[in-house]
Amino acid sequence: MDVLSERRFPIGKLKLLATSRSAGKQVKFNNEILTIEETKPDSFQGVDIALFAGGSASKEFAQDAVKAGAIVIDNSNNFRMDPSVPLVVPEVNPEDVKWHNGIIANPNCSTIQMAVVLKPLHDAAGISRVVVSTYQAVSGAGAEAIEELREQSRDILAGKEANPQVFPHQIAFNVIPHLDVFLENDYTKEEMKMVNETKKILGDDTVAVTATTVRAPVVNGHSEAINVQLKNELLPDDARKLLAKSPGILVIDTPKNNEYPLPVAANGRDEVFVGRIRRDETVEFGLNLWVVADNLRKGAATNAVQIAELLTKGML
Amino acid sequence: MDVLSERRFPIGKLKLLATSRSAGKQVKFNNEILTIEETKPDSFQGVDIALFAGGSASKEFAQDAVKAGAIVIDNSNNFRMDPSVPLVVPEVNPEDVKWHNGIIANPNCSTIQMAVVLKPLHDAAGISRVVVSTYQAVSGAGAEAIEELREQSRDILAGKEANPQVFPHQIAFNVIPHLDVFLENDYTKEEMKMVNETKKILGDDTVAVTATTVRAPVVNGHSEAINVQLKNELLPDDARKLLAKSPGILVIDTPKNNEYPLPVAANGRDEVFVGRIRRDETVEFGLNLWVVADNLRKGAATNAVQIAELLTKGML
């Protein structure tokens, strides 16, 4: 709702839907007081665009919304790899919204910020392989996760034991190499999202990605150490220039002044921040990059609203 | 001193040397009270093994110690890449202590834990390339750094601003892709230590390493996401078995039980912990690993005392 308001998204009427638990609550939007309603199969009559957040919501109601004539933009993992559903990062593959069949999927947060940066590099020099390690904020796991980090930090500073509830282990003053569930191949689902969604967004199955995703005791803002093997030469200076003029990207890369992207600085921003751009001498054409973004904004809400903006432009 | 005591290192007399600031202070070792003396050029008469910590100490006094007949084990960066000085991780290249000329260098903390794990893989299948991203604890930057993390965490939890003194930016609830100074090639000195020291310890200049080193708000215990390209096939199960029987390594790799190495669990331990071992399908023979160790112990004190143990064995 903040992003819709800030970007002055053209809204005739905003309808807020949630579970029965939240129904009846009042929320301010711009200068209006809106009341949350319980989501029901017939809630979507007259709705043009339905923004879904949360995995169970779209599983239960996305088809109802589509039947009622709404276009669903879904932030969950339910439809992302469905071949009949476009997976869209507006800076990367905006044209993919055109072939939707009622549902457009919003990618995984850590994938979005990586795809925004990989796209110009791929167009310029061809990406053959990516090795990525993430430093992911707790906000991606919800409000209770933020509270858990704060509470555990307080407890440990006071000499008490941590009491993990949301995360499988202590998250305060620790890092945990485990997001989402483990799969048959011993990768986590989060890691395989980065592998598979990146190919779909870039529209190129030959882009090989291997990932290690790690939760860090950061409140908000995901960071990624990305190693890229290219097919053709792209020098760091040229990569810097190319990325600086690419949509949605801010290059912060002045090491001598200690200037590089930081999660606390990306918090509350809509751009993807890139720095520490340097040549990887261990392969013919290699680059190392450090990429940071606000996972709740560009990694979720902002990207979803940008998709909605593409739709309104198409409707005009 | 804790490590010397715990490992029952054979000591005739322990002499404690420091700057004039600490001289006169009394410290307990086993059941004895020892008085710290100011280091002077003639302090090393009768000393067999001199353990140096801190960069300025060995720059000023290492040669005096050598002249007095002591063998210096130096934890600083001063002599590590000197071709006349062995750089030793006892699990990896113990035989290198033999060719010392009075000084033996203790490698960088993040390099030690990686080398312990790479060595058996290199012997079994040949390593061609390593991409490593680190998650490094603040303890590596000293006691003031630990206090800074605690104080900043308290301040931020209380709604105050962070006040960075030791680190270039806020470290609490943040990650900083910057350890040590930046070099001409835009890598940090810490990153190039991992590149160059690894080759020297493994005794193989063909092992190509590229690194991104990152400070995380962890009190103690460095973590590393390591991607390894091998020359020959080594399946994850075989790597697990191989590493489990290799010296100094504990394999913790049962994802279905949420068991993998964690810095809070490695804190206070001397082993190098390895988990998240899985095949990297993006190259012919690739592995991903997650490696954690206590950077003050295996990354510094324990490794230095292990080198001293090699010397005492040689002296017997």
Indicate the topology.
2 copies of one chain form a homodimer.
Chain A: H1 2-6, E1 17-18, E2 26-29, E3 32-35, E4 37-38, E5 49-52, H2 55-67, E6 71-74, E7 103-105, H3 109-125, E8 127-135, H4 143-157, H5 189-202, E9 208-212, E10 222-230, H6 236-244, E11 249-251, H7 263-266, E12 272-279, E13 286-293, H8 297-315
Parallel strand pairs in A: 1-4, 5-6, 6-7, 8-9, 11-12
Antiparallel strand pairs in A: 2-3, 8-10, 10-13, 12-13
Helix pairs in contact in A: 3-5, 3-8
Structure keywords:
NADP binding (chains A, B), 3-stranded parallel beta sheet, aspartate-semialdehyde dehydrogenase activity (chains A, B), globular, 8 helices, 316 residues, 13 strands, homodimer, Rossmann fold, alpha/beta, 6-stranded mixed beta sheet, 21% strand, Dihydrodipicolinate Reductase, domain 2
